């Protein structure tokens, strides 16, 4: 059995094995603490009945006016727990927080352009590529796709109409 709960401070001591995937971004402790203290409602963890961290998602709210949105900073599932729908559940929770608690126009995320598995999952969940961010990932100058999904506040999906030309990281708004 899996439980979905708010991420707690002591979860930082037991979630390391979840980050072993090379496609998962790992941040420093202060980064996680900042998110946990600023946007606790956007930090979810999936645990097994034994208390093992199976996966987590963290995000935040940002923007202004028609660009007010939820942002997925990280979503990851430990390799042995994949293909069970956990990432989809974590993403749904983040989307619900964006639409119900923050009344955001959309949810966005950045994904490596080479991560075809994740891109396919996001597309099946209703996300589409809004724009390409050239050389977004500094470890190998890889491009990122900025993917978006409109929330109920944007019924016509105006916030997700794809841009025609790529941008560079210094052109990002947030």
Automatic annotation (TrEMBL):
Q: Which domain of life is it from?
A: Eukaryota
> Which residue ranges does the record annotate as region Disordered?
150-174
* Cellular component terms (Gene Ontology): NatB complex
Q: Which PROSITE patterns match?
A: GNAT
Q: What Pfam families does the annotation carry?
A: Acetyltransf_1
Q: Where is the signal peptide?
A: none
Annotated Gene Ontology MF terms?
protein-N-terminal amino-acid acetyltransferase activity
Report domain N-acetyltransferase positions.
Answer: 2-152
Q: Which UniProt keywords apply?
A: Acyltransferase, Transferase
PANTHER family recorded: N-ALPHA-ACETYLTRANSFERASE 20
| Full protein name | N-acetyltransferase domain-containing protein
């Amino acid at each position: 059995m899996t439980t979905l709960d708010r991420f707690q401070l002591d979860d930082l001591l037991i979630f390391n094995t979840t980050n072993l995937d090379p496609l998962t971004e790992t941040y420093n402790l202060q980064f996680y603490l900042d998110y946990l203290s600023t946007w606790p409602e956007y930090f979810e963890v999936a645990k097994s009945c034994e208390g093992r961290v199976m996966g987590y998602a963290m995000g935040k709210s940002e923007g202004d006016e028609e660009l007010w949105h939820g942002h997925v900073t990280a979503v990851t599932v430990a390799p042995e727990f994949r293909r069970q729908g956990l990432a989809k559940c974590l993403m749904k929770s983040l989307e619900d927080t964006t639409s119900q608690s923050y009344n955001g126009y959309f949810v966005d995320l950045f994904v490596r352009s080479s991560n075809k598995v994740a891109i396919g999952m996001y597309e099946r969940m209703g996300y589409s590529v809004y724009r390409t961010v050239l050389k977004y990932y500094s470890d190998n100058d890889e491009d990122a796709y900025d993917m978006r999904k409109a929330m109920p506040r944007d019924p016509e999906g105006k916030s997700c109409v794809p841009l025609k030309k790529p941008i560079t990281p210094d052109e990002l708004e947030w």
